[in-house]
């Protein structure tokens, strides 16, 4: 029950989709303990910042934000500020020492402890819990849905990562890999469908290594199929897949079910086998290209996207050219592209020198971005004249006369509203495009 004594929490989220999903778990834990969530920061008694450590600039953004929020305490002395998520886990008590206005620190596996931590803070202490767990999946928790869209939701199905890519901080901030009980996942998806949701995205840092082994075995393809069978009108997506686990069985499962979206985010990071080895990615260029060929054979219209890192330790111009040529060979529809950022305590920080000069990293990144813009535009031009089933997510950004949604390949499609509404599936014929959007008209 919400009464005047109910404290209000505002949660601000940075980083990956897993963090957005975690904020919904945090919201649920707190509302079960006589707190309420608010989307108005000025009404908040507690501000929680769910943070990311993946690159140095992600952490710098949060540091700046803490400084801004700390000023609110002058006007509102009872306001409490908590830092949760990966940065809390990476920096631990150091963050309390450096940020005097922070009252609470909680790592990704400590969210059930947040109400107790809050109690300590009410009693005038500063509170911290950064214990990692080998078992915590928050499987029994029904997340509150913070996203107002109510059509598409994230479901966290596994946590942690133990791949130890040499550049990456996640194994240190998220702990060991563990899978969530499949029954709780399927129930959550079914409840969402019954509430009117039409799309779920199954989440994990390495989602396709999902494996449940208690009272019966369930692999990732089995789980995908079970979720897809809830209802043909429920679209199923998943992210992020590691190339090492993209099995033939998984590809065939996607191909077989029309409501499992034809879209795979398969981060390659580099096109050079030498760099991939230094990154500890556990595959090489040839292996990756073979997997892409198998995907294209079974799912010819599959949308493909990737993550790329420019300027990793010792990367030469030749390595970089191999990245560009791999991008052309795959012809990705979309990419997230980054400059290498050395993270403390990772394998790369300990073993290799961050020796590619900043301006070379920037130049290579600019070339990667330019090429991807061209590839995205080409990919969209190929769709001209084709008709796609689009799940309507809402109005387009530019006009209330236009609706927008995604096709199975995860491309954004915009078309005139007519009598359609959010949550409808509409057949849209594509007439025009930009590098980022397909533009068309509904056909009956
Ligand atoms: N688990 C996912 C991705 C996790 S992080 C996977 O393995 O693909 C998202 C992306 O951030 C990574 O794919 C990588 O491209 C980028 N990234 C991770 N660490 C980085 C670093 N130290 N510097 C720059 N980019 C990094
Ligand atoms: Fe990081 Fe690699 Fe794990 Fe992805 S698979 S989270 S890049 S260690
Ligand atoms: Fe960032 Fe942590 Fe996600 S480091 S990318 S929020 S797992």
Task: Give a description of the structure.
The mean pLDDT is 97. It is built from 14 helices and 21 strands. The termini are far apart. The strands form six sheets. A six-stranded parallel β-sheet has the order 2-1-3-4-5-6, with helices on both faces. The protein folds into four domains: 123 residues, Rossmann fold (3-Layer(aba) Sandwich), CATH 3.40.50; 115 residues, Transcription Regulator spoIIAA (2-Layer Sandwich), CATH 3.30.750; 89 residues, Transcription Regulator spoIIAA (2-Layer Sandwich), CATH 3.30.750.200; 56 residues, Nucleic acid-binding proteins (OB fold (Dihydrolipoamide Acetyltransferase, E2P)). It is α/β, with parallel strands linked by helices. The longest helix has 25 residues. A hairpin with a 5-residue loop joins β11 and β12. α8 runs parallel beside α9. Bound molecules: S-adenosyl-L-homocysteine (SAH), iron/sulfur cluster and FE3-S4 cluster (F3S). The site of S-adenosyl-L-homocysteine has 17 residues, from β15.
Distance between the termini: 47 Å
- What does the main sheet amount to? 6 strands, parallel
Low-confidence runs: none
pLDDT averaged residue by residue: 97
Report the CATH topology name of the largest domain. Rossmann fold
* Count of individual domains: 4
Q: How many individual β-strands?
A: 21
Give me the Rg, rounded: 22 Å
The proportion of residues forming helix, as a percent range, comes to 25-40%
- Number of contiguous helices: 14
């Amino acid at each position: 029950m919400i009464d005047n004594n109910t404290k209000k929490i505002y949660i601000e989220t940075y980083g990956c989709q897993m963090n957005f999903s975690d904020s919904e778990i945090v919201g649920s834990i707190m509302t079960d303990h006589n707190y309420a969530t608010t989307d108005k920061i000025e009404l908040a008694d507690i501000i929680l910042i769910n943070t990311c450590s993946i690159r140095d600039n992600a952490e710098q953004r949060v540091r700046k934000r803490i400084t801004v929020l700390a000023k609110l305490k002058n006007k509102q002395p009872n306001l409490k500020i908590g830092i949760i998520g990966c940065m809390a886990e990476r920096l631990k008590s150091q963050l309390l020492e450096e940020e005097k206005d922070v009252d609470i620190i909680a790592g990704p596996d400590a969210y059930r402890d947040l109400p107790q931590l809050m109690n300590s803070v009410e009693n005038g202490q500063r509170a911290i819990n950064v214990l990692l767990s080998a078992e915590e999946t928050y499987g029994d928790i029904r997340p509150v849905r913070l996203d107002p869209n109510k059509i598409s939701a994230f479901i966290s199905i596994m946590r942690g990562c133990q791949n130890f890519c040499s550049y990456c901080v996640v194994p240190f901030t998220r702990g060991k890999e563990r899978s969530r009980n499949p029954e709780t996942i399927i129930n959550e998806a079914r409840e969402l469908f019954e509430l009117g949701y039409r799309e779920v995205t199954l989440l994990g840092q390495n989602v396709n290594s999902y494996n449940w082994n208690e009272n019966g075995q369930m692999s990732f393809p089995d789980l995908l199929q079970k979720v897809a069978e809830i209802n043909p009108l429920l679209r199923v997506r998943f992210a992020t897949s590691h190339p090492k686990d993209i099995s033939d069985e998984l590809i065939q499962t996607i191909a077989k079910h029309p409501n499992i979206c034809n879209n795979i985010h398969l981060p390659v990071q580099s096109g050079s086998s030498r760099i991939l080895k230094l990154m500890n990615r556990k595959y090489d260029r040839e292996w990756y290209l073979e997997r892409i060929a198998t995907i294209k054979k079974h799912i010819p219209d599959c949308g493909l996207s990737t993550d790329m890192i420019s300027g990793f330790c010792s990367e030469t111009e030749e390595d970089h050219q191999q990245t560009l040529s791999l991008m052309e060979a795959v012809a990705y529809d979309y990419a997230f592209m980054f400059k290498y950022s050395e993270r403390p305590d990772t394998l790369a920080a300990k073993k290799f020198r961050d020796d590619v000069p900043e301006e070379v990293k920037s130049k290579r990144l600019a070339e990667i971005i330019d090429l991807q813009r061209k590839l995205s535009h080409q990919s969209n031009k190929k769709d001209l004249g084709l008709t796609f089933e689009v799940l309507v997510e809402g109005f387009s950004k530019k006009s209330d006369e236009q609706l927008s949604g995604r096709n199975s390949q995860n491309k954004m499609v915009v078309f005139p509203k007519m009598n359609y509404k959010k949550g409808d599936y509409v057949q849209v014929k594509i007439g025009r495009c930009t590098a980022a959007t397909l533009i068309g008209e509904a056909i009956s």
